[in-house]
């Protein structure tokens, strides 16, 4: 079906020499070129303010790609084909007078215009307005913007209003790169293509859900940005709430962008506010101190380059989240995410309730609940833990927990699981918005997060300490053990 969609694109990348463009966007374009998805007519205009010519920009790009693309996938023909599509122009994004050049590049092209704003969000409004005033937008232009959309509800509205002055909602593609990850998308297939799971997916059958997004890295030289955001704005407001929505939403009527987004919004609206009296038991914030990460000694957050030693910004958050609707009443979602944890690991664990009446060895009762482990990264796949009889004459009816295992790289042999940005760029080229975030989703997520931040700031702004290389503050273990449960550590 994809073959019938016109994907001829003129892609303008604002901020083409920045970190995101070099680490994510151009490698993703390389993979699209490699897999033959970039049609012959598609072109790329790289825009930044460095005073260089196209030839120098192309050579920079070649060097970056040689560094970023896995060696086994590097192919000089593909590199040549990609860079030959790229033109570079120096542009001060704030200066309307310089935008003339963009129309010259377009030169009446029939390709869809995609404007990718790989710039600080403070420039989104200016760029949108300048593009309009330079008559460089059509009703078919698609504009891609990165997170964070604002710092809170109010500032996100300002950015969204600025974009809405120029573009309709169906032209705006707000990236949450977690939605482009293969296994995250698979949540939709898992839940709605398998009646076995669909019929068990509620408070009658599930006792609780865990979502862990752990990173071993620290803040990677981004102290200036990160310290203003903290883990709640950087990860919870977007990626973790999106994961939670995909797990918790009701079945959409179809796979259209709005059907899926309508269901996600209903979940966001049903999130129970975490009020001041709940702070002690529903929230743990942490900040890492010096420790060791993957065998190396690493400094604490307050000793990172550029740090303000009085910062109370959190690098770890654990939360107990409740969803106030029929499907999820009484089913807590325990979510945690942090920097400088022992490993990079994102996983979701669905804990099913035990059978209503237990007839086996009382000593084994603790085994008697099924778990579905969904591994988002690394080693993408799923494991369903089921109970069987232990084999052997001497075992009687002793139970044994065993895995039903699906590892994607083994099941679907391929040298390459597409990176999130590869998929997302491809979806923009197709004009499909189902993996992008709608304005009301962003705003409902902010509303819930703003309230949480305001409540903790009044209650106790100081994060608890944890040593780099550990699973966060001890209090995050208490957050779940208090309910007679524990984090699933069997990674
Ligand atoms: N980097 C990442 O991994 C991620 C980034 N993001 C988001 O992506 C966006 C881009 O981030 P990132 O690439 O890290 O940022 P960078 O600062 O590395 O890149 C921004 C680019 O914009 C250019 N630029 C800024 N202002 C102007 C201007 N007035 N005129 C012309 N060029 C200008 C910069 O040029 P110059 O170099 O000359 O300053 C640079 O090329 C941000 O919104 C960020 O929040 C989101 C998720 C992850
Ligand atoms: O958006 C962000 O995500 C990354 C983590 O992404 P992943 O794909 O590597 O899991 C995070 O490190 C960064 O702080 C945040 O801005």
From TrEMBL:
InterPro entries: G6P_DH, G6P_DH_AS, G6P_DH_C, G6P_DH_NAD-bd, NAD(P)-bd_dom_sf. NADP(+) binds at residues 49, 92-93, 147. It comes from the Bacteria. The keyword Nucleus does not apply. It is an enzyme of class 1 (oxidoreductase). GO terms for cellular component: cytosol. It catalyses: D-glucose 6-phosphate + NADP(+) = 6-phospho-D-glucono-1,5-lactone + NADPH + H(+). The gene is zwf. It holds the Pfam family G6PD_C. Pathway: Carbohydrate degradation; pentose phosphate pathway; D-ribulose 5-phosphate from D-glucose 6-phosphate (oxidative stage): step 1/3. The active site is at residue 239. Keywords: Carbohydrate metabolism, Glucose metabolism, NADP, Oxidoreductase. Residues 12-186 form the Glucose-6-phosphate dehydrogenase NAD-binding domain. Its EC number is 1.1.1.49. Residues 189-487 form the Glucose-6-phosphate dehydrogenase C-terminal domain. One of its GO terms (biological process) is glucose metabolic process. This is Glucose-6-phosphate 1-dehydrogenase. Belongs to the glucose-6-phosphate dehydrogenase family. PROSITE patterns: G6P_DEHYDROGENASE (PS00069). It comes from Marinobacter mobilis. Substrate binds at residues 177, 181, 215, 234, 339, 344. Catalyzes the oxidation of glucose 6-phosphate to 6-phosphogluconolactone. GO terms for molecular function: glucose-6-phosphate dehydrogenase activity; NADP binding.
